[in-house]
Amino acid sequence: MEITHLRYFFHVAQIGSFSGGARLAHISAPAMTKAIQKLEEEIGARLFERTTRRVILTEEGKAVFQRARAILSQVDDIPRDLDELKDTVSGDLRVGAMEVFSVRVLPRAISALVAQFPRVVPRAYEMHPDSIQRHLADGRLDVGFSIGSASSREVHSEVLGTSPGRIVCGRSHPLYDKGRISRAALRRYPFVAPRFFEREQLPSLDQFPEATVPRKVGATIELLQMMVELVTAGSYLGCFPEITIAHYIASGDLRVVLGLTGLPMFDLHALTRTGVPPKRSAVLLVAEIKKALKR
Fold first, then answer.
1. Are 32 and 21 spatial neighbours (Cβ–Cβ below 8 Å)?
2. pTM of the model
3. Please, what are the domains in the chain?
4. Which of 136, 143, 162, 192 is the most exposed place for a label (fewest CB within 10 A)?
């Protein structure tokens, strides 16, 4: 049995599509189909049920998937083990992060890491917390950064610190000079609100206390940087974790609006896979994030 065929099978099982798995593996769809057929012949079992829209794992396929995940994880750990022996840090570092981190803190931490270890190749992905945990458990990520995320059986969570929520406005907003607002007056001003498209059932990621302070939503978008820019432009109020906007506040482009209580405290988490020693580059990146949060 070839490791390559096992990896191809793993890609198809994760994506639920032969064509999607082929794109992930950088091979043609016919080549992917042939590789899976060969693997099925070697194992002596049918791994997928094919439908017109997607492929679904058979019971035998589910068992092979669990075994393949463990095998491929061990294979992928070989470069890490060699780096440990040679006391070097190199290779791919796959990072999943919420935009709360990736707007400023994560890029600076990655830059500091790569400056010290230029052979590290960071691959960062914007993800919802649910996706970060799922891909860590599957071994497709090395480390994740999220807010408000608890440990699970497959994912370990380390609390890096907290960041207070801040209501802010831009220079041209009516509240910029006042710098204060009452709870009653808050109802008169529209807010931007971060929500994920087609996932409206999830709570707003800014954790604004809408139950006690109803608000008008001026824009519903999932790009945090876009929301910050909308607030900076002066049309909206925004509620963000301080780590995301501290440099805007320092420059005067945003001003904190005071007078409200009950705003959220954001727990900041680093996530790794349970039971698997993290890559040294992942450990070092977490350390750089901690340094950035203390500045």
1. yes
2. 0.70
3. 3-76 (1.10.10.10), 80-159+267-294 (3.40.190.10), 162-265 (3.40.190.290)
4. 162
